[in-house]
Amino acid sequence: MSAPPRVLTVAGSDSGGGAGVQADLKTMLALGVHGMSVITAVTAQNSLGVQGAWELPVEAVRAQYRSVVDDIGVQAVKTGMLASAELVEAVADLITGTDAPAVVDPVGVSKHGDSLLAPSALDSVRTRLLPAATVVTPNLDEVAQLTGLRVESEDGMREAAAALLAYGPRWVVIKGGHLPGDAVDLLTDGSEEHWLRAPRHDNRHTHGTGCTLASAIASGLAKGLTVPEAVRAAKEYVTGAIAAGFALGGGIGPVDHGWRFRT
């Protein structure tokens, strides 16, 4: 039998299983691609927050990446938590040298507000990682970190997208989930706009939404979808996962990556 499309996540491990590499691999399985991983950091994490984080050495990250890409190959790469300037720059070089689309989730803080990116790494994200991205998927907090813009409206999302496109990614998805009203995202390459809207579900268990969306986009690209097609399909998948999110522990539970298997 022929192998399914292959997607590589380059991200941190979430010991609670709701976000990070664990969420990425669950998403990839649910969407019919073969998921592979490069671990950039290990976190002690649960429904209440991040209790500790330890980044891996650059040489360990580079060795994992080369091991997978040189033998197995990839049809898409997704990046998540990269922690430090050194890791950001190393991963940027790796994906620049890989003939596959790259979806960059510029992870800055966790769902609980815990920092997952050193402040000294922000310039490397802007100047090295974003230019290597096919699609970049910041939420509004990450928009503020990277551009200084505080988005409070849909017009502000358009301004934020322009500021991020100036750093060189081909497409930007501004995730407007922190705004009131419907869950609205803006996808644009600077010449065309796609507004993606979904009803807001009254469910606090949304841990892992950003990782899940980026991995779903990468899965769609690996299957040959265009960027707008991949983002629309990912939005639909994530909306269902949020609606089915469930409680774990004493805090914020995860989205349900397997919701389609149970409906």
TrEMBL record:
Q: Does the keyword Kinase apply?
A: yes
- Per the UniProt record, the source organism is Streptomyces chromofuscus
Q: Where is the Pyridoxamine kinase/Phosphomethylpyrimidine kinase domain?
A: 14-256
What is this protein called in UniProt? Bifunctional hydroxymethylpyrimidine kinase/phosphomethylpyrimidine kinase
What SUPFAM superfamilies does UniProt report for this protein, alphabetically?
Ribokinase-like
UniProt entry tagged with the keyword Acetylation: no
Keywords of the record, alphabetical order, are: ATP-binding, Kinase, Nucleotide-binding, Thiamine biosynthesis, Transferase
Q: Which pathway does the database say it acts in?
A: Cofactor biosynthesis; thiamine diphosphate biosynthesis; 4-amino-2-methyl-5-diphosphomethylpyrimidine from 5-amino-1-(5-phospho-D-ribosyl)imidazole: step 3/3
Gene3D superfamilies per UniProt: 3.40.1190.20
In the record, what terms sit under GO molecular function?
ATP binding; hydroxymethylpyrimidine kinase activity; phosphomethylpyrimidine kinase activity
UniProt record, GO biological process = thiamine biosynthetic process; thiamine diphosphate biosynthetic process
Q: Which CDD domains match?
A: HMPP_kinase
* Phylogenetic lineage: Bacteria, Bacillati, Actinomycetota, Actinomycetes, Kitasatosporales
